[in-house]
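Hey everyone, long-time lurker, first post.

I ran two proteins through the pipeline my lab uses and got sequence/structure pairs for each. Pasting them in order. The first:
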Amino acid sequence: MESTGNTNGYWFGKNWKRFLAENYSEERLNEAKKSLISLFGESELVGKTFLDIGCGSGLFSLAAWQLGAQKIISVDIDKDSVDCCRHLASELAKDRTGDWTIIQGSILDEKFIAELPTCNIVYSWGVLHHTGKMWQAIENAGRFVTPGGLFMIGIYNWRGGRQGTAVWQRLKKWYCAAPRWQSLIWEWSYITWKILYMVLVLRNPISYIRNYQRNRGMSWFRDVSDWLGGYPYEAATPGDVLKFVRDKFGFSLTKQNINCDLGINEFVFRAN
């Protein structure tokens, strides 16, 4: 996920460094590949150019490379994320590093994105809602899809109510500004509550956490930190996302996975 570079925001790259140091494995990479296949199909990436906006650890850029993408361009504003991605490329893609370009920059920076090429597949999962200007970020990202190409974005679902989006915006902002000892207390309070809730609903928390890598190859503890600290934070209803992308680009929806809570809604569009 792309950090904002804002001192009042969450530095995703530090979380990704911990993920690579503590959690990365071949099994997690395989789960990331399964996630891409579920979105694009078995052979859609073969021979294609792949733009990963907000590349984070680089896990999905590597997955796209292993699934046969001809050229990878990984972009993130966070230096730690860029370092993570370069580490994966140097260690696990040594034979094709010339086909994998890793750049530090923001999707909101017009001067920076003017240098980016269009690509067959533009992928940005769980990123654009953390930029502070979500709709502009979506518009900027959509510019880079070649005719007939695919545009995949994952955007937080908007919900109202006492535990909805507006409440979490305030909590995340507080978390990022709080002294570390306070944010740690909040982290462990949240983790304890989630574990107790799983026990109450007769779900085995040990099994759930151990098998969490099946969720795109991610780590539960790293995702908890990401969720609590992910600020800036915006969200949108599926209908709002569909209308925006259709109005701006005329893209057609080919796949969507809807989250009815506060999680990520996934959209795959095809450019005409």
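...and the second, right after it:
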Amino acid sequence: MKELKLFINGEYVSAKTGNTFENRSPVDNHLVAMVHEAGKDDVDHAVQAARAALSGPWATMTQAVRVKLLNKVAERINERFDEFLEAECLDTGKPRSMAAHIDIPRGAENFKAFSETLVNHPTETFQLNTPDGKDAVNMGHRSPKGVIAVISPWNLPLLLMTWKVGPALACGNTVVVKPSEETPTTTTLLGEVMNECGVPPGVFNVIHGFGPNSAGAYLTEHKGIDAITFTGETRTGEIIMQAAAVGLRNISLECGGKNPGIVFAEADIEKAVEGTMRSAFVNCGQVCLGTERVYVQRPIFNQFLARMKEEVGKLRLGRPEDEKANFGPLVSLEHRDKVLSYYQLAEAEGATVEIGGSVPNMGEEMNAGAWIEPTIWTGLSEDARVVKEEIFGPCCHIQPFDSEAEVIALANDTDYGLAAAIWTENNSQAIRVAQAIEAGIVWVNSWFLRDLRTPFGGAKQSGIGREGGVHSLEFYTELKNICLKL
């Protein structure tokens, strides 16, 4: 049986607790590996290794050498592409075609993109007139923040982990990573790559486990952690924020969303259908930026709904290796139970199930997996729980609207503010509405189109802080002013 151990100070080690937990495939529930669960002593070992590395060879490397090293990490991930692809698909069950196009190449690119962006960003310099007429020069200086706790999610395991680890290491920090207990494999495999590329021991560390009374809580509460970056649900983000308050550690939180899609009568309806299909159903709806609320202007509502149902009917469920499959299972049986409870709630709240709404029959080999049907509802009121609460599954509610002012109010009537998508060929309308939407990122006639140099993060209960490009500098470095009297 395959074991996934902890990766601490450049070595794979067994957990001192002696505890392990199962990693099962969401495709058919077969046992993939046994994972070592870190306890307090293991977490302390990882944090101490990371802190020691701050004053070792990593600290004396020039920025140029660090950039070269991280570029080598990106290249090595691509050289071992098939191994990372297999690991990602085993953990998530997602189609290989998707993981090969997004998860692995983007996960590798994060090391290169962030290291090169950050190295080329200047700090400030000001000349100050002093009372004695001899002046002073004030120079901005950035230094690493220290040991960063990285808590990454299960929906895009490699991509969203390296989105944090890439800039953290580029800025000279060291990291202790806790991947989701559902998807531990690619993060563990990355330890091998770090060693192969010559990253010093202790710079990159991996611990496994759960949240409360396990590795997650022990990591966020550890006094040796200087900052915490987290992607996941809002409730967990609140708990992490409370832990970070002790010692006033900095946090970056990217949390939940109940993202709206707005389709105006002026939209190119085929573009809007294609984009909304992706935003609602790609990765089985397990994307924080995905669309769960769709508002369509009344003149094109029936046409849009009919086209969406037609396209959902074409989705092909199957194993990752099935070349014709474009729709996988949910990440776990536990998550399937949660999503299915919302499917049942939608009917109880009076929804019309336009398509889907149940568990598919996948045959004897796969019925034990976490499969669920892609689903569209109509007919719910705006105060229905299914319309208000994040589901994180392959489903959306589609509702008509009449005016621009009405749909802005509907889109903003949520506790969340992560993302939105607007579909219209009227540019003035697009800008007006985009500016009025309360969200961290608004797409117009597109979705999931990202320039890694731009700020990323959420408003309201969708998070705190911004990462991406030079904005990552604000979180991953400590900025000081050096005042030199002339």
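Reply from user beta_strand_b:
Welcome! Quick read of the second one: The chain has two domains: 3-255+462-485, 259-452. Residues 96-119 form the longest helix (24 residues).
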